[in-house]
Amino acid sequence: xxxxxxxxxxxxxxxxxxxxxxxxxxxxxxxxxxxxxxxxxxxxxxxxxxxxxxxxxxxxxxxxxxxxxxxxxxxxxxxxxxxxxxxxxxxxxxxxxxxxxxxxxxxxxxxxxxxxxxxxxxxxxxxxxxxxxxxxxxxxxxxxxxxxxxxxxxxxxxxxxxxxxxxxxxxxxxxxxxxxxxxxxxxxxxxxxxxxx
Length: 197
What we know:
By secondary structure, the protein is of the alpha+beta class. It has one helix and 13 strands.
């Protein structure tokens, strides 16, 4: 299996020897979550062949001490949630998951949720193909813009816009004045010039 990184995503591109099937499993290589907030882990399958049939998708999680099978979504049997510390806090990111997009949301993320999350597609006849994401959880809250800072930024933008408008107006007014003065002077000069008859 060949892995390439494109724009911060892991893209696994398995190539079968028969060259009849090419597909990709797309995941984020690393995701940062903040304790007490929700975090989304991306997992998408991009079809390369209509011959491949997805049988199931499985999410697993490995932390420093254990490996857990979080959930399995089987095409015929539906969703099966396993007993893990995440059971009541994990769900698909879409209310009706598509087999092509089985991204998950972990609600109220905790420091202990850190680890490597694997999204494993079982596809017939090509086999199993996995994408992985490392979740890092920080204790501090994500940066949030306070109301006072937001008001300050908006005020600064308004003042800058006002200054630019006034300078532009004065420039155009001055230019028009200089042009008018030049025309007036030119017409005065023309009065004193002898005309050729």
